[in-house]
Specification:
seven-stranded parallel β-sheet, glutamate-5-semialdehyde dehydrogenase activity, alpha/beta, 420 residues, NADP binding, cytoplasm, single chain, NADP
Length: 420
């Protein structure tokens, strides 16, 4: 069985590499035509895709998957509509491929610049969310990359149904069907092959739980774009407008629990803690959110559970929130940089200077002023969709859209020059 998986993955890799050569030369019109054909195929297949998702949901309930995974797995008609809107947004985005920048003449007479080009073949490994299948495929195609998708076993039926529509759209448009390949086996050996096929795969994007991403990062022989977890913070500063802070802190935590940009720790300045904490606690109580607080928090909120050191590091992905009272912006920044995951952190303040200090000091891929962390998302950032969020500092950081799936190469224009 191991040999057959290896052979299967080798074939997938070879086909992806060949397809990537075609995509790298494809015009914007050709790529947009393919995406439009995929849109039509998906729309015509909505009932079949939602039915396939229901099969996955039934299995997930039988297997007692936790609520966060169930939330990520479910495809409702509204979420399906959102998927199609994201695809339309990608179609309307400017194609980055072929853009030439920084043109300059050198003393020798040559002219040089940089041209934006695709990465080549993207391998993506992800859990639960079937919408990722479409988001990743559309971004890869628009940026001229072939992509190999390996979804979780819990979303197998959904992913295969979406893949069928994508394949139909590619076939209609004349682009290679191997431009988007969804792995058809749940055997974990396929993942081991994918992350070590450096001759065929240029970058790996893992998207899922911390255990999955740690395994990929440790075992991959291909560069990885990743984030391990989403331990996001909101800091209510002493000069915050509490009428802004209340809905932001509520939204950041309770809009959706099982997402990487949900707030997991609320930091409150000691100067406003006595006024703010009882008011926000009342709102959280209505949502049945358990609060785990530091000693200063518990003096104000008697019902809060004592927070442990581990709580400050934890991504709950559920209705639990850590709460800490801090002495000021310096302690808030220090706490975020020590315990956070460098994903997304927000300050609520009316003081411009303190906001600037927070922006400069917090070492995260997205830093916000007076806004919910839930905005850290490719769709909300105008990227159409995202292939993932990167907390790395090299190549791509934050939501990874079209430009994050490209690189640049030097180009030189000469007219007979030789080096002296």
């Amino acid at each position: 069985m191991q040999e057959s998986i290896e052979q299967y993955m080798q074939t997938v890799g070879q086909q992806a590499r060949q397809a990537s050569r075609v995509l790298a030369r494809a015009s914007t019109q050709t790529k947009n035509d393919a995406l439009s054909a995929i849109y039509t195929a998906l729309k015509n297949s909505e009932a079949a895709i939602l039915a396939a998702n229901q099969i996955d949901m039934n299995k997930a309930h039988s297997n007692n998957l936790d609520s966060a995974l169930l939330d990520r797995l479910e495809l409702t008609p509204a979420r399906f509509k959102g998927m199609l809107q994201g695809l339309n947004d990608v179609i309307s985005l400017v194609d980055p491929i072929g853009e030439i920048t920084d043109m300059a003449y050198r003393p020798s007479g040559i002219q040089l610049g940089k041209m934006r080009v695709p990465l080549g073949v993207v391998g993506m490994i992800y859990e639960s969310r079937p919408n990722v299948t479409l988001e990743a495929a559309s971004l890869a195609l628009k940026s001229g990359n072939a992509i190999i998708l390996r979804g979780g076993s819990e979303a197998l039926e959904s992913n295969q149904a979406i893949a069928k529509a994508i394949q139909h759209g590619l076939q209609v448009s004349g682009l290679p069907e191997a431009a988007v390949q969804v792995i058809n086996t749940t055997d974990r050996a396929a993942v081991g092959q994918l992350i070590t096929m450096s001759e065929y795969v240029d970058v790996i994007v893992p998207r899922g739980g911390k255990g999955l991403i740690e395994r990929i990062t440790n075992d991959a022989r291909v560069p990885v774009i990743k984030h391990l977890d989403g331990n996001c913070h909101v800091y209510v500063e002493a000069q915050a407008d509490l009428l802004k802070a209340l809905p932001i802190a509520l939204n950041a935590k309770t809009h959706r629990y099982g997402v990487c940009n949900a707030m997991e720790t609320l930091l409150v300045d000691e100067k406003v803690a006595e006024e703010f904490l009882p008011r926000i606690a009342e709102l959280y109580e209505e949502k049945q959110v358990e609060l785990r607080g530091c000693p200063a928090t518990r003096r104000i909120l008697e019902n809060a559970v004592p927070a442990s050191e581990e709580d400050w590091y934890t991504e709950y992905l559920g209705p639990i929130l850590a709460v800490k009272v801090v002495s000021g912006v310096e302690e808030a920044i220090e706490h975020i940089n020590k315990y956070g995951s460098h994903h997304t952190d927000s300050i609520i303040t009316e003081n411009y200077s303190i906001a600037r200090e927070f922006l400069a000091g917090v070492d995260s891929s997205s830093v916000m002023i007076n806004a919910s962390t839930r905005f850290a998302d490719g769709f909300e950032y105008g990227l159409g969709a995202e292939i993932g969020i990167s907390t790395d500092k090299i190549h791509a950081r934050g939501p990874v859209g079209l430009e994050g799936l490209t690189s640049q190469k030097w180009i030189v224009f000469g007219d007979g020059q030789i080096r002296q």
